[in-house]
Amino acid sequence: MRLVSVVGTRPQLIKAAALQPLLRRHHEEIFVDTGQHYDDAMAGNFFGELGLARPDHALGIGGGGHGDQTGRMLIALEPLLEAARPEAVVVFGDTNSTLAGALAAAKLGIPVAHIEAGLRSFDRRMPEELNRVVADHLSRWLFAPTPAAVANLAIEGITAGVFEVGDLMLDLAARVSADVKDPAVLAAIAARLNLPIATGRFLFATVHRAENRSIAAMTAWTSLLGAVATPDRPVFLALHPGTKTALQAAGIALPRNVIVIEPQGYSTSLALQLHAAAVLTDSGGVQRESAWLGVPCLVLRDTTEWVETVGGHGSSAVLVGLDRETAVRELDARAPQARSAQQATERAAALHLVGAGAAARISNALQTSPREMGA
Ligand code: UD1
Ligand code: UDP
Protein backbone atom coordinates (compact mmCIF):
# COMPACT_ATOMS: atom_id res chain seq x y z
CA MET A 1 0.00 0.00 0.00
CA ARG A 2 1.11 3.57 -0.65
CA LEU A 3 1.25 5.31 2.74
CA VAL A 4 2.08 8.70 4.13
CA SER A 5 3.39 8.59 7.74
CA VAL A 6 3.25 11.84 9.70
CA VAL A 7 5.59 12.46 12.63
CA GLY A 8 6.78 15.62 14.36
CA THR A 9 7.80 15.10 17.98
CA ARG A 10 10.43 13.07 19.82
CA PRO A 11 8.13 10.20 20.83
CA GLN A 12 6.78 10.01 17.28
CA LEU A 13 10.27 9.67 15.82
CA ILE A 14 10.84 6.86 18.32
CA LYS A 15 7.57 5.10 17.39
CA ALA A 16 8.27 5.55 13.69
CA ALA A 17 11.70 3.97 14.21
CA ALA A 18 10.01 0.91 15.69
CA LEU A 19 7.67 0.58 12.71
CA GLN A 20 9.59 1.82 9.69
CA PRO A 21 11.77 -1.20 8.89
CA LEU A 22 8.76 -3.53 8.60
CA LEU A 23 6.50 -0.93 7.06
CA ARG A 24 9.01 -0.36 4.26
CA ARG A 25 9.38 -4.07 3.64
CA HIS A 26 5.68 -4.37 2.77
CA HIS A 27 4.55 -0.89 1.76
CA GLU A 28 5.64 2.26 -0.01
CA GLU A 29 6.13 4.93 2.66
CA ILE A 30 6.24 8.68 2.12
CA PHE A 31 7.69 10.05 5.35
CA VAL A 32 6.55 13.49 6.54
CA ASP A 33 8.06 15.35 9.49
CA THR A 34 6.04 18.38 10.57
CA GLY A 35 9.02 19.71 12.52
CA GLN A 36 6.95 20.22 15.68
CA HIS A 37 10.14 19.34 17.58
CA TYR A 38 13.15 20.95 15.99
CA ASP A 39 16.17 21.03 18.35
CA ASP A 40 18.75 18.37 17.51
CA ALA A 41 18.41 16.95 21.02
CA MET A 42 14.63 16.60 20.60
CA ALA A 43 14.46 15.53 16.97
CA GLY A 44 17.44 15.66 14.59
CA ASN A 45 19.71 13.35 16.59
CA PHE A 46 17.14 10.54 16.61
CA PHE A 47 17.35 10.07 12.83
CA GLY A 48 20.96 8.95 13.00
CA GLU A 49 20.67 7.08 16.29
CA LEU A 50 17.57 5.10 15.32
CA GLY A 51 18.32 4.66 11.63
CA LEU A 52 15.23 6.55 10.50
CA ALA A 53 14.92 7.49 6.84
CA ARG A 54 15.33 11.17 6.05
CA PRO A 55 11.87 12.72 5.68
CA ASP A 56 10.57 13.07 2.14
CA HIS A 57 8.93 16.27 3.36
CA ALA A 58 10.24 18.31 6.30
CA LEU A 59 7.64 21.00 6.96
CA GLY A 60 9.62 22.98 9.54
CA ILE A 61 6.57 23.86 11.63
CA GLY A 62 7.53 24.20 15.29
CA GLY A 63 6.60 26.57 18.12
CA GLY A 64 3.52 28.75 18.45
CA GLY A 65 0.22 28.17 20.18
CA HIS A 66 -1.95 25.12 19.54
CA GLY A 67 -4.24 26.71 16.94
CA ASP A 68 -1.40 28.44 15.16
CA GLN A 69 0.79 25.33 15.10
CA THR A 70 -1.98 22.91 14.11
CA GLY A 71 -3.34 25.35 11.53
CA ARG A 72 0.03 25.75 9.84
CA MET A 73 0.38 21.97 9.74
CA LEU A 74 -3.03 21.62 8.08
CA ILE A 75 -2.15 24.27 5.52
CA ALA A 76 1.08 22.46 4.64
CA LEU A 77 -0.30 18.91 4.75
CA GLU A 78 -3.38 19.38 2.57
CA PRO A 79 -1.62 20.12 -0.75
CA LEU A 80 1.05 17.57 0.07
CA LEU A 81 -1.54 14.80 0.57
CA GLU A 82 -3.48 15.90 -2.50
CA ALA A 83 -0.34 15.55 -4.59
CA ALA A 84 0.83 12.30 -2.97
CA ARG A 85 -2.61 10.61 -3.12
CA PRO A 86 -1.75 7.89 -0.62
CA GLU A 87 -4.09 5.00 0.13
CA ALA A 88 -3.74 5.74 3.85
CA VAL A 89 -2.16 8.21 6.27
CA VAL A 90 -0.49 6.79 9.39
CA VAL A 91 -0.43 8.94 12.55
CA PHE A 92 1.13 8.16 15.92
CA GLY A 93 0.10 9.01 19.48
CA ASP A 94 -1.61 12.20 20.56
CA THR A 95 0.28 15.32 19.59
CA ASN A 96 -0.75 18.28 17.46
CA SER A 97 1.04 16.55 14.55
CA THR A 98 -1.27 13.56 15.09
CA LEU A 99 -4.33 15.77 15.00
CA ALA A 100 -3.20 17.67 11.91
CA GLY A 101 -2.28 14.49 10.02
CA ALA A 102 -5.58 12.81 10.84
CA LEU A 103 -7.72 15.86 10.09
CA ALA A 104 -6.00 16.80 6.84
CA ALA A 105 -6.31 13.22 5.57
CA ALA A 106 -9.91 12.70 6.68
CA LYS A 107 -11.03 15.94 5.01
CA LEU A 108 -9.56 14.67 1.74
CA GLY A 109 -11.28 11.30 2.15
CA ILE A 110 -7.98 9.48 2.73
CA PRO A 111 -8.28 6.64 5.30
CA VAL A 112 -6.40 7.26 8.54
CA ALA A 113 -4.50 4.65 10.57
CA HIS A 114 -4.02 5.68 14.21
CA ILE A 115 -1.28 4.03 16.23
CA GLU A 116 -1.92 4.12 20.00
CA ALA A 117 -5.67 4.40 19.50
CA GLY A 118 -8.12 4.18 22.39
CA LEU A 119 -6.02 5.68 25.18
CA ARG A 120 -7.95 7.91 27.52
CA SER A 121 -6.95 9.86 30.62
CA PHE A 122 -10.56 11.15 30.84
CA ASP A 123 -9.13 14.61 31.43
CA ARG A 124 -10.12 16.90 28.58
CA ARG A 125 -8.01 19.74 29.95
CA MET A 126 -5.04 17.89 28.43
CA PRO A 127 -4.39 18.85 24.81
CA GLU A 128 -3.34 15.25 24.17
CA GLU A 129 -6.75 13.91 25.24
CA LEU A 130 -8.50 16.12 22.67
CA ASN A 131 -6.06 15.06 19.98
CA ARG A 132 -6.57 11.35 20.73
CA VAL A 133 -10.35 11.54 20.77
CA VAL A 134 -10.50 13.37 17.44
CA ALA A 135 -7.89 11.14 15.78
CA ASP A 136 -9.71 7.99 16.90
CA HIS A 137 -13.06 9.17 15.61
CA LEU A 138 -11.52 10.00 12.22
CA SER A 139 -9.63 6.72 11.82
CA ARG A 140 -10.35 3.58 9.78
CA TRP A 141 -7.60 1.51 11.34
CA LEU A 142 -7.35 1.86 15.12
CA PHE A 143 -4.22 0.19 16.45
CA ALA A 144 -4.85 -0.16 20.18
CA PRO A 145 -1.93 -1.10 22.42
CA THR A 146 -3.91 -2.66 25.27
CA PRO A 147 -7.25 -4.33 26.07
CA ALA A 148 -8.22 -1.24 28.08
CA ALA A 149 -7.75 0.90 24.96
CA VAL A 150 -9.99 -1.46 22.95
CA ALA A 151 -12.63 -1.19 25.69
CA ASN A 152 -12.43 2.62 25.67
CA LEU A 153 -13.09 2.65 21.93
CA ALA A 154 -16.06 0.31 22.31
CA ILE A 155 -17.59 2.63 24.93
CA GLU A 156 -17.39 5.41 22.32
CA GLY A 157 -19.07 3.16 19.76
CA ILE A 158 -15.90 2.37 17.79
CA THR A 159 -15.53 -1.34 17.06
CA ALA A 160 -14.89 -1.55 13.30
CA GLY A 161 -11.24 -1.45 12.27
CA VAL A 162 -9.94 -1.91 15.82
CA PHE A 163 -6.82 -4.08 16.16
CA GLU A 164 -5.22 -4.85 19.51
CA VAL A 165 -1.57 -4.95 18.48
CA GLY A 166 0.45 -4.41 21.66
CA ASP A 167 2.75 -1.51 22.38
CA LEU A 168 4.91 -0.44 19.45
CA MET A 169 7.42 1.22 21.77
CA LEU A 170 8.06 -2.11 23.47
CA ASP A 171 9.30 -3.48 20.13
CA LEU A 172 12.02 -0.82 20.05
CA ALA A 173 12.82 -1.04 23.78
CA ALA A 174 13.33 -4.79 23.38
CA ARG A 175 15.65 -4.18 20.42
CA VAL A 176 17.83 -1.71 22.35
CA SER A 177 17.65 -2.81 25.99
CA ALA A 178 20.16 -5.66 25.72
CA ASP A 179 22.77 -3.09 24.68
CA VAL A 180 22.29 -0.90 27.76
CA LYS A 181 22.39 -3.61 30.45
CA ASP A 182 26.15 -3.47 30.82
CA PRO A 183 27.19 -1.11 33.68
CA ALA A 184 30.01 0.03 31.38
CA VAL A 185 27.35 1.80 29.29
CA LEU A 186 26.39 3.87 32.32
CA ALA A 187 30.03 4.62 33.06
CA ALA A 188 30.45 5.90 29.49
CA ILE A 189 27.39 8.16 29.87
CA ALA A 190 28.79 9.47 33.18
CA ALA A 191 32.10 10.24 31.48
CA ARG A 192 30.42 11.96 28.52
CA LEU A 193 28.25 14.11 30.78
CA ASN A 194 31.06 14.55 33.31
CA LEU A 195 28.71 13.66 36.16
CA PRO A 196 28.89 11.16 39.04
CA ILE A 197 26.28 8.74 37.69
CA ALA A 198 26.54 5.33 39.39
CA THR A 199 24.20 2.34 39.33
CA GLY A 200 21.26 2.81 41.71
CA ARG A 201 22.76 5.96 43.19
CA PHE A 202 20.69 8.50 41.30
CA LEU A 203 17.11 9.30 40.29
CA PHE A 204 16.23 10.00 36.67
CA ALA A 205 13.53 12.59 35.93
CA THR A 206 11.75 14.15 32.95
CA VAL A 207 8.98 16.80 33.07
CA HIS A 208 7.31 18.33 30.03
CA ARG A 209 3.51 18.19 30.14
CA ALA A 210 1.75 21.49 29.48
CA GLU A 211 -0.06 21.29 32.83
CA ASN A 212 3.33 21.08 34.57
CA ARG A 213 4.48 24.39 33.07
CA SER A 214 2.24 26.70 35.11
CA ILE A 215 4.01 28.65 37.85
CA ALA A 216 2.09 26.79 40.58
CA ALA A 217 2.90 23.40 39.07
CA MET A 218 6.57 24.24 38.50
CA THR A 219 6.89 25.48 42.07
CA ALA A 220 5.37 22.22 43.30
CA TRP A 221 7.37 19.74 41.20
CA THR A 222 10.71 21.50 41.68
CA SER A 223 10.07 21.35 45.42
CA LEU A 224 9.12 17.66 45.10
CA LEU A 225 12.36 16.89 43.24
CA GLY A 226 14.29 18.81 45.91
CA ALA A 227 12.62 16.71 48.62
CA VAL A 228 13.68 13.38 47.09
CA ALA A 229 17.19 14.44 46.01
CA THR A 230 20.11 13.89 48.39
CA PRO A 231 23.86 14.41 47.95
CA ASP A 232 24.27 10.62 47.72
CA ARG A 233 21.33 10.16 45.39
CA PRO A 234 20.89 13.26 43.19
CA VAL A 235 18.17 13.75 40.60
CA PHE A 236 19.34 14.00 36.98
CA LEU A 237 16.62 15.93 35.19
CA ALA A 238 16.70 15.59 31.38
CA LEU A 239 14.93 18.86 30.73
CA HIS A 240 12.62 19.44 27.77
CA PRO A 241 13.47 22.83 26.20
CA GLY A 242 9.88 24.06 26.61
CA THR A 243 10.00 23.34 30.35
CA LYS A 244 13.42 24.98 30.59
CA THR A 245 12.09 28.16 28.98
CA ALA A 246 9.04 28.16 31.29
CA LEU A 247 11.21 27.76 34.41
CA GLN A 248 13.49 30.58 33.29
CA ALA A 249 10.57 32.87 32.47
CA ALA A 250 9.11 32.27 35.94
CA GLY A 251 12.51 32.75 37.61
CA ILE A 252 12.26 29.34 39.29
CA ALA A 253 15.60 27.82 40.24
CA LEU A 254 16.12 24.11 40.79
CA PRO A 255 16.91 22.95 44.32
CA ARG A 256 20.26 21.54 45.39
CA ASN A 257 21.06 18.02 44.20
CA VAL A 258 18.71 18.41 41.22
CA ILE A 259 21.02 18.48 38.23
CA VAL A 260 19.77 19.50 34.81
CA ILE A 261 21.04 17.63 31.78
CA GLU A 262 20.17 18.13 28.12
CA PRO A 263 17.51 15.86 26.59
CA GLN A 264 19.35 12.63 25.85
CA GLY A 265 19.29 10.15 22.99
CA TYR A 266 17.01 7.14 23.08
CA SER A 267 19.43 4.49 24.29
CA THR A 268 20.86 6.88 26.90
CA SER A 269 17.33 7.51 28.14
CA LEU A 270 16.75 3.75 28.47
CA ALA A 271 20.11 3.29 30.21
CA LEU A 272 19.46 6.12 32.67
CA GLN A 273 16.09 4.59 33.52
CA LEU A 274 17.38 1.04 33.87
CA HIS A 275 20.30 1.90 36.14
CA ALA A 276 18.48 4.52 38.25
CA ALA A 277 17.19 3.89 41.75
CA ALA A 278 13.85 5.19 40.48
CA VAL A 279 12.33 7.38 37.79
CA LEU A 280 10.14 10.46 38.25
CA THR A 281 8.24 11.58 35.16
CA ASP A 282 5.09 12.96 33.58
CA SER A 283 5.95 11.29 30.25
CA GLY A 284 3.72 8.61 28.80
CA GLY A 285 6.65 6.88 27.11
CA VAL A 286 9.01 6.95 30.08
CA GLN A 287 6.24 5.69 32.35
CA ARG A 288 5.84 2.56 30.19
CA GLU A 289 9.53 2.03 29.60
CA SER A 290 10.30 2.14 33.31
CA ALA A 291 7.53 -0.45 33.85
CA TRP A 292 9.07 -2.75 31.22
CA LEU A 293 12.52 -2.26 32.74
CA GLY A 294 11.11 -2.96 36.22
CA VAL A 295 12.26 0.39 37.63
CA PRO A 296 10.13 2.07 40.31
CA CYS A 297 8.42 5.09 38.76
CA LEU A 298 6.69 8.03 40.41
CA VAL A 299 4.30 9.56 37.89
CA LEU A 300 4.03 13.33 38.40
CA ARG A 301 0.41 13.45 37.28
CA ASP A 302 -3.03 12.85 38.81
CA THR A 303 -4.28 10.70 35.94
CA THR A 304 -2.79 8.43 33.33
CA GLU A 305 -4.02 6.95 30.08
CA TRP A 306 -1.56 4.06 30.65
CA VAL A 307 -3.63 2.52 33.43
CA GLU A 308 -1.77 -0.80 33.33
CA THR A 309 1.42 0.79 34.65
CA VAL A 310 -0.29 1.93 37.85
CA GLY A 311 -2.41 -1.17 38.30
CA GLY A 312 -2.10 -1.41 42.07
CA HIS A 313 -0.14 -3.80 44.25
CA GLY A 314 3.05 -5.00 42.63
CA SER A 315 3.01 -2.50 39.75
CA SER A 316 6.19 -0.50 39.34
CA ALA A 317 4.55 2.92 38.85
CA VAL A 318 2.41 5.05 41.11
CA LEU A 319 0.60 8.33 40.51
CA VAL A 320 1.89 10.86 43.03
CA GLY A 321 0.67 14.07 41.41
CA LEU A 322 2.85 16.93 42.61
CA ASP A 323 2.59 16.09 46.30
CA ARG A 324 6.04 15.96 47.86
CA GLU A 325 5.10 14.00 50.99
CA THR A 326 3.47 11.28 48.87
CA ALA A 327 6.51 11.22 46.60
CA VAL A 328 8.95 10.86 49.52
CA ARG A 329 6.83 8.10 51.06
CA GLU A 330 6.40 6.14 47.82
CA LEU A 331 10.06 6.46 46.95
CA ASP A 332 11.13 5.20 50.38
CA ALA A 333 8.78 2.24 50.00
CA ARG A 334 9.81 1.34 46.44
CA ALA A 335 13.49 2.26 46.36
CA PRO A 336 14.88 2.65 49.89
CA GLN A 337 18.18 4.48 49.59
CA ALA A 338 20.14 1.82 51.48
CA ARG A 339 19.08 -0.88 49.04
CA SER A 340 18.73 0.88 45.72
CA ALA A 341 22.26 0.22 44.38
CA GLN A 342 21.80 -3.51 44.94
CA GLN A 343 18.28 -3.41 43.48
CA ALA A 344 19.47 -1.64 40.34
CA THR A 345 22.40 -3.99 39.83
CA GLU A 346 20.17 -7.06 40.08
CA ARG A 347 17.52 -5.53 37.85
CA ALA A 348 19.96 -4.73 35.05
CA ALA A 349 21.55 -8.17 35.23
CA ALA A 350 18.17 -9.94 35.02
CA LEU A 351 16.68 -7.82 32.24
CA HIS A 352 15.35 -9.67 29.23
CA LEU A 353 12.74 -7.74 27.25
CA VAL A 354 10.69 -9.35 24.52
CA GLY A 355 9.04 -7.19 21.85
CA ALA A 356 5.27 -6.88 21.53
CA GLY A 357 5.15 -7.78 17.84
CA ALA A 358 3.16 -4.60 17.27
CA ALA A 359 5.12 -3.47 14.21
CA ALA A 360 4.39 -6.74 12.38
CA ARG A 361 0.70 -6.69 13.30
CA ILE A 362 0.32 -3.08 12.14
CA SER A 363 2.14 -3.68 8.89
CA ASN A 364 0.05 -6.81 8.20
CA ALA A 365 -3.25 -5.15 9.03
CA LEU A 366 -2.44 -2.32 6.64
CA GLN A 367 -2.43 -4.86 3.82
CA THR A 368 -6.21 -5.19 4.25
CA SER A 369 -8.07 -2.35 2.60
CA PRO A 370 -10.65 -0.52 4.72
CA ARG A 371 -13.34 -1.62 2.24
CA GLU A 372 -12.52 -5.27 2.85
CA MET A 373 -12.79 -4.47 6.56
CA GLY A 374 -16.32 -3.17 5.96
CA ALA A 375 -15.41 0.33 7.08
C1 UD1 B 1 4.47 17.79 22.64
C2 UD1 B 1 3.12 17.10 22.69
C3 UD1 B 1 3.06 16.16 23.87
C4 UD1 B 1 4.23 15.20 23.86
C5 UD1 B 1 5.53 15.98 23.76
C6 UD1 B 1 6.67 15.01 23.64
C7 UD1 B 1 1.24 18.43 21.82
C8 UD1 B 1 0.04 19.20 22.19
N1 UD1 B 1 2.04 18.07 22.84
O1 UD1 B 1 4.57 18.61 23.78
O2 UD1 B 1 1.87 15.40 23.81
O3 UD1 B 1 4.21 14.45 25.04
O4 UD1 B 1 5.50 16.83 22.62
O5 UD1 B 1 7.88 15.55 24.05
O6 UD1 B 1 1.46 18.16 20.67
N2 UD1 B 1 10.49 23.53 22.06
C9 UD1 B 1 11.80 23.81 21.79
N3 UD1 B 1 12.49 22.94 21.00
C10 UD1 B 1 11.94 21.83 20.46
C11 UD1 B 1 10.60 21.57 20.73
C12 UD1 B 1 9.88 22.43 21.53
O7 UD1 B 1 12.34 24.79 22.26
O8 UD1 B 1 12.64 21.09 19.76
C13 UD1 B 1 9.74 24.47 22.93
C14 UD1 B 1 9.07 25.57 22.14
O9 UD1 B 1 9.10 26.73 22.90
C15 UD1 B 1 7.63 25.12 22.09
C16 UD1 B 1 7.48 24.40 23.43
O10 UD1 B 1 8.73 23.78 23.63
O11 UD1 B 1 6.73 26.19 21.95
C17 UD1 B 1 6.40 23.34 23.41
O12 UD1 B 1 6.61 22.45 22.32
P1 UD1 B 1 5.38 21.71 21.63
O13 UD1 B 1 5.86 20.86 20.54
O14 UD1 B 1 4.32 22.69 21.31
O15 UD1 B 1 4.80 20.82 22.79
P2 UD1 B 1 5.54 19.85 23.78
O16 UD1 B 1 5.44 20.43 25.12
O17 UD1 B 1 6.86 19.47 23.26
N1 UDP C 1 13.43 10.19 25.88
C1 UDP C 1 14.65 10.41 25.28
N2 UDP C 1 15.48 11.33 25.85
C2 UDP C 1 15.18 12.00 26.98
C3 UDP C 1 13.92 11.76 27.58
C4 UDP C 1 13.06 10.87 27.00
O1 UDP C 1 14.98 9.79 24.28
O2 UDP C 1 15.98 12.82 27.45
C5 UDP C 1 12.55 9.20 25.28
C6 UDP C 1 11.97 8.20 26.23
O3 UDP C 1 12.89 7.17 26.52
C7 UDP C 1 10.74 7.74 25.48
C8 UDP C 1 10.28 9.00 24.75
O4 UDP C 1 11.42 9.87 24.75
O5 UDP C 1 11.08 6.76 24.54
C9 UDP C 1 9.14 9.66 25.44
O6 UDP C 1 8.88 10.89 24.85
P1 UDP C 1 8.33 12.14 25.63
O7 UDP C 1 8.52 11.96 27.08
O8 UDP C 1 8.90 13.35 24.99
O9 UDP C 1 6.77 12.17 25.23
P2 UDP C 1 5.50 11.36 25.73
O10 UDP C 1 5.84 9.92 25.74
O11 UDP C 1 5.11 11.88 27.06
O12 UDP C 1 4.46 11.71 24.72
Word description of this protein:
This protein has 2 domains: 2-167 and 356-365, Glycogen Phosphorylase B (Rossmann fold); 172-350, Rossmann fold (3-Layer(aba) Sandwich), CATH 3.40.50. The chain has 375 residues and is an alpha/beta fold. It has helices at residues 10-26, 40-50, 66-84, 96-107, 127-138, 147-155, 168-180, 183-193, 215-228, 241-250, 266-274, 284-293, 324-334, 340-350, 358-365, and strands at 2-7, 28-33, 57-58, 88-92, 112-115, 141-144, 162-164, 203-206, 235-238, 258-261, 278-281, 297-299, 317-319. The strands form 2 sheets. Strands 3-2-1-4-5-6-7 form a 7-stranded parallel β-sheet, with helices on both faces. It is 47% helix and 14% strand. The mean pLDDT is 96. The structure holds uridine-diphosphate-N-acetylglucosamine and uridine-5'-diphosphate (UDP).
Ligands and ions found: uridine-diphosphate-N-acetylglucosamine, uridine-5'-diphosphate
State the strand order across the main sheet: 3-2-1-4-5-6-7
The CATH architecture of the largest domain comes to 3-Layer(aba) Sandwich
Percent in helix: 40-55%
Task: Estimate what percentage of residues fall within beta strands.
Answer: 5-15%
Low-confidence stretches: none
Biggest β-sheet description: 7 strands, parallel
- Tally of distinct domains: 2
The CATH homologous superfamily of the largest domain corresponds to Glycogen Phosphorylase B
List SSEs in N-to-C order.
EHEHEHEHEHEHEHHEHEHEHEHEEHHH
Set down the secondary structure blueprint.
Layout: E1 2-7, H1 10-26, E2 28-33, H2 40-50, E3 57-58, H3 66-84, E4 88-92, H4 96-107, E5 112-115, H5 127-138, E6 141-144, H6 147-155, E7 162-164, H7 168-180, H8 183-193, E8 203-206, H9 215-228, E9 235-238, H10 241-250, E10 258-261, H11 266-274, E11 278-281, H12 284-293, E12 297-299, E13 317-319, H13 324-334, H14 340-350, H15 358-365
Parallel strand pairs: 1-2, 1-4, 2-3, 4-5, 5-6, 6-7, 8-9, 8-11, 9-10, 11-12, 12-13
Helix pairs in contact: 1-2, 1-7, 1-15, 3-4, 4-5, 7-11, 7-12, 9-13
The protein binds uridine-diphosphate-N-acetylglucosamine (UD1) and uridine-5'-diphosphate (UDP).
